[in-house]
Automatic annotation (TrEMBL):
Pathway: Cofactor biosynthesis; tetrahydrofolylpolyglutamate biosynthesis. The keyword ATP-binding applies. GO terms for biological process: one-carbon metabolic process. This is tetrahydrofolate synthase. The gene is Fpgs_1. Belongs to the folylpolyglutamate synthase family. PANTHER family: FOLYLPOLYGLUTAMATE SYNTHASE, MITOCHONDRIAL, FOLYLPOLYGLUTAMATE SYNTHASE-RELATED. It comes from Piaya cayana. It is an enzyme of class 6 (ligase). The keyword ATP-binding applies. GO terms for molecular function: ATP binding; metal ion binding; tetrahydrofolylpolyglutamate synthase activity. It catalyses: (6S)-5,6,7,8-tetrahydrofolyl-(gamma-L-Glu)(n) + L-glutamate + ATP = (6S)-5,6,7,8-tetrahydrofolyl-(gamma-L-Glu)(n+1) + ADP + phosphate + H(+). Keywords: ATP-binding, Ligase, Magnesium, Metal-binding, Nucleotide-binding, One-carbon metabolism. The lineage of its organism: Eukaryota, Metazoa, Chordata, Craniata, Vertebrata.
Length: 352
């Protein structure tokens, strides 16, 4: 995953924990030296930062023999270096927003096209509620995935020696039901991540986990039904995935999930820090809703007993003025703007 919050090792985790300094150093130099030895002598260049870390992450996961690798794309999807995975178990697209417009395009439709680039023939994909046109673009991208033939079907769950195997003619794309639909018997699913916007992320996570369990032979969690071309979809561009009863492990996973730096409250004596990494219009709006709720869901008192200070930083080509306007309802007393200057301290960053 990317970016990291404090240390680069956060990007490569095993069982939820960043790999150790020793493992990071070991695999970093192993991959670096191997690339250095085999690079093109004419065009002598090493992979860029994110590409190198992606190669290294794959190498770590292979060498450490993980059972399951969850890979988040860097930017977009179609041309992202993580997209070399040919046959993932399942693909997921979370809520779309306008970001990285110089790379992905300046409309939601263009960005949806990029995101849909991770879809693969015969590999189920899920997304959450999106605006109508971007959702239609995702549907079209899924339908563009063509038939693939493989000589040995064992890689796809077909018994070895089965000869040629024909995959699904396209990528089956489904829409995740709202999280409310999973809360049977009036039992609310507790989320470790604050903010109502995390409910759609949780619904997507449940669908991805269900597909992995089914690949491992665990059935009874609501099977997907293939939708025939021309079938009525009740006004939706894509079919709705079935709901199921979350397992105890799923319930615990949703409850115990942590994401430092996102909708995080840190009380420190007389000062309470509200941290979030929102950087798009939709995510800033979600951040404001969370902040107003986290700050006791009330306006700032006028008696001077509370002072609100905004500490703001933005990178890239984002429209910072537009983002700041969205923060006006928070009624900050002061604002501190952090420039993007970095200072490298060898002593403090050794081994990081």
């Amino acid at each position: 995953s990317s970016p990291h919050l404090v240390q680069v090792r956060e990007r490569i985790r095993i069982n939820g924990q960043p790999i150790s300094k020793e493992l990071f150093s070991k695999y970093f130099w192993l991959v670096y030296n191997r690339l250095e030895e085999t690079k093109d002598p004419v065009h002598a260049s090493m992979p860029a930062y994110f590409r190198f870390l992606t190669i290294m992450a794959f190498h770590v996961f292979l060498q450490e023999k993980v059972d399951l690798a969850v890979v988040e794309v860097g930017i977009g999807g179609a041309y992202d270096c993580t997209n070399i995975i040919r046959a993932p178990v399942v693909c997921g697209v979370s809520s779309l927003g306008i970001d990285h417009i110089s790379i992905l395009g300046d409309t939601m439709e263009k960005i949806a096209w990029q995101k849909g680039g991770i879809f693969k023939p015969g590999v189920p994909a899920f997304t959450v509620a999106q605006p109508e046109r971007p959702l239609e673009v995702l549907r079209d991208r899924a339908q563009e995935r063509k038939v693939s033939w493989v000589v040995d079907g064992s890689r796809w769950g077909v018994p070895r020696g089965g000869g040629l195997s024909l995959l699904s003619p396209q990528c089956p794309l489904y829409l995740c039901p709202e999280l409310d639909a999973f809360e049977g018997d009036h039992r609310a699913l507790a989320l470790g991540l604050a903010g109502t916007h995390q409910r759609s992320n949780a619904a997507l996570a449940l669908q991805l986990a269900r597909m992995w369990l089914q690949r491992r032979g665990c059935w009874g969690l609501g099977e997907l039904k293939e939708t025939l071309p021309g079938a009525k979809l009740e006004g939706r561009p894509v079919p709705l995935a079935p709901t199921f009863q979350p397992t105890d492990a799923m319930i615990q996973g949703l409850r115990d999930t942590e994401w430092l730096g996102r909708t995080q409250v840190l009380p420190r004596g007389p000062v309470t820090w509200y941290l979030d990494g929102a950087h798009t219009t939709s995510s800033i709006q979600a951040c404001v809703r969370w902040f107003r709720q986290a700050a006791l869901n009330q306006d700032k008192p006028h008696d001077g007993s509370e002072v609100r200070v905004l500490l703001f930083n933005a990178t890239g080509d984002r429209d910072t003025a537009a983002l700041l306007k969205l923060l006006l309802p928070c009624h900050f007393d002061y604002a501190v703007f952090c420039p993007n200057f970095t200072e490298v301290s060898v002593a403090n960053n050794a081994g990081e």
